[in-house]
Hints:
By secondary structure, this protein is α+β, with helices and mostly antiparallel strands. Among the domains are: 4-263, Beta-galactosidase, Chain A, domain 5 (Distorted Sandwich); 592-660, Immunoglobulin-like (Sandwich), CATH 2.60.40.1180. It contains ten helices and 41 strands. The longest helix is centred in the middle third of the chain and has 17 residues, at 400-416. The chain is globular, with a radius of gyration of 26 Å. It starts with a strand and ends with a strand.
Amino acid sequence: MVFYCLFFVTLQAQVRQVLEIPIGPNSRIVYQLDKGEYSVIWKGKTVVEHAYACYQSDRSGDSRRAGKVKYTVGEMRTNLGKAKLYDLSFPNDPSLTQLFYVLPGKDQFITQLIVRSTTPVYAVTAFAADKLHWEQSGDNRALFVPFDNDMWARYNAMPLAGASFNGSEVGAVYNADNNTGVVMGSLEQDNWKTGFLLRANGENRGIELRSGFTDSTITHDVIPHGKVLPLNGRVESPKLLVSFCNDWRDGMEAFARQNQKLHGRVIANWNRPTPMGWNSWGVLKDKLRFEQAIRVVDFFADSIPGFRTADKTLFIDLDAFWDNMTTNGIDGDISKLKEFVGHCRKNGFKPGIYWTPFTDWGKSDRKVEGSAYSYVETWTKQNGRMLDIDGGRAMDPTHPATRERIVHTINKMKALGFEMIKIDFLGHGAQEADHFFDPAVTTGMQAFRQGMQFLDSVLDNRMLVYAAISPNIATARYVHMRRIACDAWSSLDNTEYTLNSSGYGWWQSFLYDFMDADHIVFADEKDGVNRARLASALVTGSLITGDDYSTNGKWSATAKNLLQNKDLLAMKNSIKNFRPLRANTGTRGVEQFYQLKDGKLYLAFFNFGNSDQQINLPQWLLNTVKGGQCKELFSGEAGTLKAGAGFFVPASDARIYQVSTGK
């Protein structure tokens, strides 16, 4: 990745003790050159105070903090647009340089620390501040973002007062009443894991974006972050974004867009319609058999012809235990897999399969498929011990056996004709290690990057690639769609859990082609609960169902009704995602979503309680639809939206409204 293509430098005379860097109307960085620290003023108010940079050059835990500063100013063209570059050097530490990139017209800056060294660097902090001031009236929140979607991880939009936590890669401080906020995070995940560390200390609140972050709960590492070796005599931090926002939701979406532009994609963009279909893990799980899979295909072909993607197909995906159809997995009798693929295609569907490229489930010393190595040689170790996470043993993505296994398995899946693959437990490939097979790889993110790039090279853009359990941000370059939260089934509680991630992680839709709400299972739930479960997918992104449609039950009748609703499917094909309307639910699911598209306002309301609700729109949104035509898409009921009218949502249910804005 190359950040710039042109660079112009203009030297500035060092005649003052303060450097002011404009970052937007009435907003600026005020750098105290004699102290090596700065403040940030947004709209005339100091939001960040005593900000600084530091790095850790050994395992002692001591950080070297920058001191007095000299600077130059230049202009450059980047793949984010034209930028002004402020290049700061530190006479007391000539090895250190801090860069500030300022994009015209944006209330934000990007900063990066460069350490010139012949020895490794263990942690680097390009942005830290002793004081983060956020003193607005109303409901102030701080957003915790997890590293991945494993083990039922939840986001937390916690009250700001007393908030103190370690988040991963990005976070926000915002007002849930007026939506103003500050978004801060890492725009790059190639080498470092970055922590969003918010600290409450009495009346003071500190913030640090630490690259070189691990946590046994959040990143699942039980050892410190790996060292980063110098490249051409330099160790570079990730580029960090600090963005001041009139609407923090715009800020999160802008963060995702800028992250994607800096990374570039390894996999080709998905240029076909929104994926829809079925996955066997929803209900069948380890009971999956060939006969059931065939009957599921027949159900979709014969019983719900109205449930199709915009290009008139579905993905029918065999999850784990597809090897029940074989005698020895992919290397045995695969005739039933061939027959399944053929049956899907005969009915106009696309067959899918499942695999875990960096995880060993056998956990015994045996030969690696397609390789002369043994599995024991591939296991990732931390403090000399094998790393088991969520039941699976982590494999070194840089080991030749891991790569040979990928070639062996993926090529056989392609030869069988599978057109979709669900890849799972990818976070196992992002773990730190005592050492990796490739000596040039010294961090978990470097290993993950190498492993995913190799996997994509073998897949060769032949399949729709769906990531399940995986790092939230770092996975985006390598897959088309990703599960927003793992293992949700049919209950209303499961929908609430999903909507915690969809509500606070919706911005990931700007990193991936599509986000997915996991298998939509209806089972024997009440009608309202099933509407909510389907609505959770509609607000998230793609739509993958999960009931056992090889048998008849309430779920099949529900599918015939809900999955053929023309209004809902038309909306699904038109809208990629919804954003949260009110983001004030802590660790609970978001209940109110909206999206504006093609002159229409779409509203999705969820009621997780036992009492009916009447929901009123905030005035700024109500102004866009005054007197508009309104239709509830589940029921088809239509009318005119009257001034002051609310929206009805029954207990344990959901409603989706389409309102004409007249624009």
